[in-house]
TrEMBL record:
Its main location: membrane. Belongs to the AzlC family. It is a multi-pass membrane protein. The chain crosses the membrane at residues 22-41, 53-86, 138-160, 166-185, 192-210, 216-234. Keywords: Cell membrane, Membrane, Transmembrane, Transmembrane helix, Transport. InterPro entries: Brnchd-chn_aa_trnsp_permease. This is Branched-chain amino acid ABC transporter permease. It is found in: Cell membrane. The lineage of its organism: Bacteria, Pseudomonadati, Pseudomonadota, Gammaproteobacteria, Vibrionales. PANTHER family: INNER MEMBRANE PROTEIN YGAZ.
Length: 240
């Protein structure tokens, strides 16, 4: 009886852990969301359209890029191409999550797919590794909490953008880099992952400095190659 009660209350008990884990990330992206909200107004979007971007698109980097491109009258192919490149990493996230969510009902697969972000993926992966099993409720709670936080940040940006001008000039976009650093550093636990992060980071800096086209895509490839080479080194040494 006691065991059954624990199983019934297990999903509810994970709410507080999920909220505690995701809260720092919600605070970290607050400046990012404010920037998205204010930028939408500056690019000619209405307050409703700007908020709808966060409600329906729910992708910070894509929203910033798409808002600026649409505001500058970029063509649809350019906007879609940029969105594809920026969001390509979600294909890897989805491929990894597939083993866990395939047995779930369609409503769960659609819901978790929509809420899948860098933050939700990182937290859920760490939770799965620590607990030894995937928790759909933990993934749902972290994803939903981040979704609410992101939209509240966007709303704050809309309200602030209507009163203050040129919010991007105060460096709010640094929240983007800070958030990804916070997500990446804890996952660097092996030499291949370390070399992958260093190679891609250094390559990105060099390619950007020399104005090389498609710097992000090339730097990503460099990092992947460096990680694969580092991972194969022990095998080669053992065979000699």
């Amino acid at each position: 009886m006691h065991k059954a009660a624990q199983e019934v209350h297990a999903p509810e008990a994970s709410v507080w852990r999920a909220l505690g884990d995701v809260s720092p990330l919600c605070l970290a992206v607050l400046p990012w969301g404010i920037l998205c909200g204010s930028l939408g107004l500056q690019m000619g979007f209405s307050a409703l359209q700007t908020q709808a971007m966060s409600l329906l698109v729910f992708a910070g980097a894509v929203q910033l890029s798409g808002t600026m491109m649409v505001g500058n009258a970029a063509g649809l192919p350019a906007v879609l191409g940029s969105t594809l490149v920026i969001s390509a990493r979600h294909l890897l996230y989805g491929a990894h999550f597939r083993q866990y969510i395939t047995p779930l009902p369609l409503k769960w697969r659609l819901g978790l797919g929509f809420l899948l972000t860098d933050e939700m993926y990182a937290l859920s992966t760490a939770h799965t590794s620590k607990q030894g099993r995937f928790s759909k409720h933990y993934a749902l709670y972290t994803g939903a909490a981040f979704y609410v936080g992101w939209n509240l940040a966007t709303l704050a940006g809309i309200l602030a953008g209507s009163q203050l001008k040129a919010l991007e000039a105060i460096g709010l976009d640094f929240a983007i880099a800070a958030t990804f650093i916070a997500l990446t550093v804890p996952s660097i636990k092996t030499r291949p992952v370390l070399l992958c992060a260093l190679a891609s980071g250094v390559s990105m800096l060099l390619f950007t400095y020399y104005h090389i086209p498609n710097a992000l895509i090339i730097a990503t490839g460099v990092g992947m190659v460096a990680g694969l080479m580092a991972e194969s080194l022990p095998t080669r040494r053992a065979s000699t």
